Amino acid sequence: MREVNYLTDKSQDSEKLLSFKEQILRDLEEANEQLLKIEKEYDLPDRSIETPSSLKEEEEATPPPKVEESALAPKEEPVEPEKATPAVEEKSELPKPAPKEPSQEPVEESLSRSSRNQRQQKQKKQNKIAKRIVRTVVSLLLIVIVATGIFAVTYIHSAVKPMDKNATEFVTVEIPAGSSNREIGAILEKKGLVKNGQFFNYYTKFKNYSNFKSGYFNLQKSMDLETIIQKLQEEGTKTPQAPVLGKVTIPEGYTIDQIATAITADVSTKKAGKTPFKKEDFLKAVQDDAFIEKMVAKYPKLLANLPSKDSGVRYRLEGYLFPATYNYGKDTTVKEMIDQMLAAMDQNLSPYYETLESKNINVNEVLTLASLVEKEGATDQDRKDIASVFYNRLNQDMPLQSNIAILYAEGKLGQKTTLKEDATINTELDSPYNIYKNTGLMPGPVDNPGVSAIEAAVNPSKTDYLYFVANVENGEVFFAKTYEEHNKNVEEHVNSKLTQASSN
């Protein structure tokens, strides 16, 4: 008959116990492998989990359970299977679940330390990344700030430069009355004269530029921002005018010889340039008889008593060219410039024409006297008092005795002279301008006087003065009624200074 093996209940418990121990060992091996991976990844010291010796020993000591073979033994031997049962029980009771607890504690503690170290390493790594991010952000901000500064400087530099430095055409701009800086900037930007209208607004406010005029202006794209601002602070015209290429300035008291030089300099910009006019052309035009007759016809009141060629004057138009600043255009000629100066003198004398007629004084006499007053006096009051001296001497048929006229006759008026040269002037000079010898006025003016001198010559002070002398150091004028008083002033304010200058 076939033998059949049966497991007792205790044998089954032993089988389950062995499976549980194997599971624990497998779990420990997996945990150890995981620890080894972590240590390798983060370069940690070796913390492998050791298999508890008790379990290993127990595993080695515990032999595999024996399954008793029971056969259908003969009834005569029932005792033998009962003897085998206690042996199986003893062996099955040896491994108890109790050792499971001490084996888990070192595993959990090792896993806890590993997890804590892992978190610390992760935190350090995160801190390093955070620092890199902060450094990167700060660096980017610095780069942006520097780049913005460079861009701003470059933009400002380009915005104040001319839009087209080679442009020669003029652009007519109308600035309405009451326009703000922002509105003016918008007009200029629309005309292509500035890079940005808003920048013009900020720039003019930052530089505290104001007092912009209204009217029509002729501007160029070759003008920089400062030049455009300067142009807009000048008076505009009520209607569009021909473009102005430049300007010339004639100071008060300049002679025609000096004007001939001044007309060659353009004063329209800070950097004075050259005009298209030549000195020789100007001197030729003021002596052109045909041109002069044309001007006499154009300005009859002004030039009615113009000196003739044989009167002894150097230039017939001397004294009639009004000192001022004049514009010129691309096609302006020298004669047109002279015409502008005559027109300005006619305009400034217009309020006096009736007064002169009532006083029986002609324009040539007024301008001749005014030309002396212009050089002798420095203030309006001094000029009126000096004019009164000249009128008082003329009324008493006394020579005017002014060095100014003799210097003009010598061709030195307008040039620098020393005190000695002025004091030792040639009063015996044979010239119609020698008013030390000749009584009355010279044949014509010796320079081109301004409004103040003309006003003094038309409306002088009412005094009894017959003499005057100016302090050679500060220009202060001292008046006298008698010759004795005058000599005293000359000794004190002129001769004593000359002595000091000579000793020095």
Describe the structure.
It is a single chain. The protein is mostly helical and 504 residues long. It is built from 18 helices and 8 strands. A two-stranded antiparallel sheet has the order 1-2. The chain has a two-stranded antiparallel sheet with strand order 3-6. It has a two-stranded antiparallel sheet with strand order 4-5. The radius of gyration is 59 Å and the shape is elongated. The N terminus is likely disordered.
Topology, element by element:
Elements: H1 9-42, H2 53-61, H3 79-93, H4 100-159, E1 170-175, H5 181-190, H6 197-206, E2 215-220, H7 225-232, E3 246-249, H8 256-262, E4 265-266, E5 273-274, H9 279-285, H10 289-298, E6 325-328, H11 334-349, H12 353-358, H13 363-376, H14 380-395, H15 403-409, H16 419-423, H17 451-458, E7 467-470, E8 477-480, H18 483-503
Antiparallel strand pairs: 1-2, 3-6, 4-5, 7-8
Helix pairs in contact: 1-3, 1-4, 5-6, 8-9, 13-14, 13-17, 14-17
